[in-house]
Amino acid sequence: MKRLMAATAAFLLTMMLGPVQAESPAGMQLYVFSSGRMMLSKGFLQNLAPMEPKIEIPIGFFVVKHPKGNVLFDTGNNDKLITDLGYWGKLATIFEPKMKPEDAIDAQLAKIGLKPDDIKYVVVSHMHLDHGGNVGKFPNSTLVIQDDELGFAMFPDEPFAAGYIPGDAQVLRAGVGSSKPNAMEILRLNGDLDLFGDGSVLIHRSRGHTKGSQMMLVRMPKTGSVILTGDAAYFRDNVEKNLIPNIVLAYDPVGIVQGYDWIRRMMATENASFFTARDPEAYKTLKHAPEFYE
Ligand SMILES: [Zn+2]
After folding, report:
1. H or E, element range at 265
2. Distance in Å, CA 232 to ligand 1 centroid
3. What is the CATH number of the domain that holds 87?
4. What digits encode the pLDDT tens for the residues 128-175?
5. Distance 26 CA to ligand 1 centre (A)
6. How many Å lie between the centroid of ligand 1 and the Cα of residue 233?
7. Over the stretch 214-272, which tens digit does the pLDDT of each residue have?
8. Is residue 4 scored above 70 in pLDDT?
9. Which domain holds residue 95?
10. How many structural domains comprise the chain?
11. Percent of the chain scored above 90 by pLDDT?
């Protein structure tokens, strides 16, 4: 009985102190890529910022090499845009995507010697056109997505539909006549996940920008903790000054600020840094593939 009480006390103490910092495996590498660029009004991404002129933003995405498998975080714009801007319909004239053949996701991954089949997990921050565009290029990987984002990608609520291209999500369905619904393995989350069970890659649910947005915290052996924000934080000063995006990009405005709070908490508790994917100035300061963070 005493032993049980001691074990319970130790468990409660652990819970109070928070998760134990696991040792990240040696050899982890974090790479930064971009699948081209597009034009957007800063005022959409940050309230109070000007709507004109548009600014050119990178389409950042990331790869984590881990001894138990490679993880892709976001997939950029659909590569069909390289030859067919019509894939985005009228959005192509609004966003003016600029993609060259070398921006295709296979060409980007080839910079570090990877092919799409070398990716074990495709984690999407959300399914907006510039994040979930190429999920269909990874039929042999496991897609990791919040369950409600998966449904939202096909049937979003008004006025949030414009950011989703039906064709990007359509490829996730198996073909006609299949008894299985999915064309690929899909891990449908309703919360956070320690992806490898060693604390090194943590997926954090962050409803805010969209119904099922998520961020990914990567604990690198030398660099330390890095948060990949997706669109949960567009610009660094969105976090620093609690600035939210335009309402069409803010499904749950309170959730967005709670996401900023989580980033700040990780900065305070484990000295984390955060990498944004659409902030042109911040993006310039990052090491780009084939360079990497250890
Ligand atoms: Zn988005």
Report:
1. helix 253-270
2. 8
3. 3.60.15.10
4. 999 999 999 999 999 999 999 999 999 999 999 999 999 999 999 999
5. 33
6. 10
7. 999 999 999 999 999 999 999 999 999 999 999 999 999 999 999 999 999 999 999 99
8. no
9. 24-198+280-284
10. 1
11. 91
Residue 13 has pLDDT above 90, yes or no: no
d(CA 270, CA 221): 13
* Distance from Cα 278 to the centre of ligand 1, integer Å: 10
Q: How many residues are recorded in the chain?
A: 294
HSE toward the beta carbon, residue 251, CA cutoff 13 A:
23
Q: Ligand 1 centre from 161 Cα, in Å?
A: 11
CA angle 168–195–203, rounded 5-degree value? 65
- Flag whether pLDDT at 116 surpasses 50: yes
Q: Which residue has the tokens 């989580």?
A: 262
Is 151 within a domain? yes
In a domain, 8, yes or no: no
Which residues, in sequence order, are CB contacts of 240 under 8 Å at separation 6+? none
Domain membership of residue 71 (yes or no) is: yes
* Within a domain: 291: no
Q: How far is the CA of 186 from the centre of ligand 1 (A)?
A: 20
CA of 128 to the centre of ligand 1 (A): 5
- Distance from residue 15's CA to the centre of ligand 1 (Å): 34
Beta-carbon neighbours within 5 Å of ion ligand 1? 128, 231
